[in-house]
């Protein structure tokens, strides 16, 4: 984060239910912030992480701060958080978590969004790793209006992290693709769905033509957060990645028709890849540190 | 709703956890859908409504459908629902609730969004009744991108409902103003806040100049849902209103500094107005119906 809260005595992280009068030092060791829309998934992922990363700690993990809007769990050096649906909801959490970790003195933190999505040419269960977010016109940007002026920010994603996530998915034999992710501000018309409550201005044939055009432009999935997430991470100089499990292949239909059991299994695919990625990152780093320490020890 | 789901055997209202294979007839009598961001407020409002409208029913009300994304409570002919933060999250609920009520055969349903907001020239506790939503450029529209094309929809609100809500607030001696409501896709930079995690492109002076310009254009408050809500209701031919309690006067500062007790009290202001409005609507209508029934009885 390139901004220091200068001249401020107290900062109230209103939506998290935390503020700078509290002791935030427990967050100093955070290295990963994993986030997704659902509070239920944030909790279950936190419990899965506890079993793997901190098995000696009694579970299940309890949320930090207030839970009216977001749920945040801390498991070792990992936060598992829910951001609700859509960019506006997620941005509040991104701003307040970034401030929280800044105040706590955490460094080199990676943010990973773990979501569900509609695949474009990707079958249910495939994990889609985002190379860049794009808006509905297929431009790879996040659009905002600030003080009456329209702004565009790049929505590209750290390419080294994309490669690592694809590599780890391969090691786990989980089907994975990388490509652009269309981030929309609506689940129905903005994603070309014909099954919303309103009479859309387009036909089934229009929709299929657009989805094919998006595919040809390199879009592999559609969700509701990618452009704002990518732009935020880039501006804040945070290494950030997005990995989503496809629940439906939109080239075959609009509705989510898999069973709840299948959906649960598909969602787990993305979590499993991220869990393994973090395990490798933390343990390789530990190994590096050990090796450095060993080298230093030899020199003394 | 002007759309009939033709040729569909089953419609899955995925995010509500309901579908058309279930008996949805309990929703046939619904006349009001009240909604706000927070699940906690949806529950407490439902309980307040139960005590007033259906005191013989044991409480507290239990949510309908799944609660992973949204919480919906039914109290007599009223639904109290949470839609999360922001337009993308709210739109999913609007589409799926409108379809639900359509399938259930409910008629003449009014939708009222009860929120919290930043006031512009309105002190904390004032209720702001929306005459139209506007985007950050101050145009009274909702903007969308559908199949690659940019669209604008009118975000005007039913003026008769605005007048009634202002009238009821007056009867209850709750401070109220009406005016345009700026609906933004972000709580920080898009609302001109300087206290987010990113270095904004504007200064305190720029912000104040913009807020004053917005005030002069007729904007009285800022929240994150107004334009999409107003446009949805207008397109779906639903009578819809928006009433929000100001938690801060943005002409005086950015941060929410009231105590939790004060904030709870302010939030209640908007709920109290809506509760009284619905009471009057239902009981005046009942009186009309009784009177019509009496007339019909006299004619037979």
- Assembly annotation: homodimer
- Provide the number of structural domains of chain A: 2
Helicity of chain A, in percent?
Answer: 25-40%
Strand residue percentage of chain A: 15-25%
Distance between the termini of chain A: 36 Å
Radius of gyration of chain A: 20 Å
Question: In the CATH scheme, what's the topology name of the largest domain in chain A?
Answer: Rossmann fold
Which class do the helix and strand fractions of chain A yield? alpha/beta
Number of strands of chain A: 12
Categorize the overall geometry of chain A: globular
Largest sheet of chain A: 5 strands, mixed, barrel
What is the CATH top level name of the largest domain in chain A?
A: Alpha Beta
Q: Greatest interface and its residue counts?
A: A-B, 68 and 68 residues
Number of helices of chain A: 6
The CATH homologous superfamily of the largest domain in chain A is named Nucleoside phosphorylase domain
Uncertain runs of chain A: 1-7, 290-300
The assigned CATH architecture of the largest domain in chain A is 3-Layer(aba) Sandwich
Helix and strand pattern of chain A:
EEEHEEHEEEEHEHEHEH
Largest sheet, spatial ordering of strands of chain A: 6-11-10-7-12
Whole-number mean pLDDT of chain A? 92
């Amino acid at each position: 984060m390139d901004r220091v809260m200068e001249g401020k005595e107290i900062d109230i992280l209103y939506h998290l239910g935390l503020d700078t009068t509290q002791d935030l030092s427990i967050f100093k060791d955070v290295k990963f912030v994993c986030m997704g829309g659902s509070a239920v998934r944030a909790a279950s992922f936190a419990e899965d992480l506890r079993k793997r990363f901190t098995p000696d700690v009694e579970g299940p993990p309890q949320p930090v701060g207030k839970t009216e809007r977001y749920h945040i769990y801390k498991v070792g050096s990992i936060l598992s958080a829910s951001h609700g649906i859509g960019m506006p909801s997620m941005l509040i959490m991104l701003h307040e978590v970034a401030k929280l970790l800044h105040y706590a003195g955490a460094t080199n933190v990676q943010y990973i969004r773990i979501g569900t999505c509609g695949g474009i040419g990707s079958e249910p269960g495939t994990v889609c790793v985002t190379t860049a977010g794009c808006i509905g016109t297929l431009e790879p940007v996040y659009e905002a209006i600030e003080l009456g002026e329209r702004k565009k920010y790049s929505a590209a994603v750290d390419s080294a992290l994309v490669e690592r996530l694809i590599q780890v998915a391969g090691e786990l034999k989980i089907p994975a693709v990388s490509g652009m992710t269309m981030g929309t501000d609506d689940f129905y018309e903005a994603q070309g769905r014909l099954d919303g409550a309103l009479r859309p201005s387009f036909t089934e044939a229009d929709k299929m033509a657009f989805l094919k055009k998006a595919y040809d432009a390199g879009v592999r999935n559609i969700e509701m957060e990618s452009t704002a997430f990518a732009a935020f991470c880039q501006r804040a100089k945070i290494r950030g990645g997005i990995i989503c499990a496809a629940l439906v292949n939109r080239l075959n239909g609009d509705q989510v028709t898999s069973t709840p059991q299948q959906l649960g299994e598909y969602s787990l695919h993305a979590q499993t890849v991220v869990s393994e990625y973090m395990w490798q990152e933390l343990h390789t780093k530990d190994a590096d540190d050990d090796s450095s320490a060993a080298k230093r020890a030899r020199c003394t």
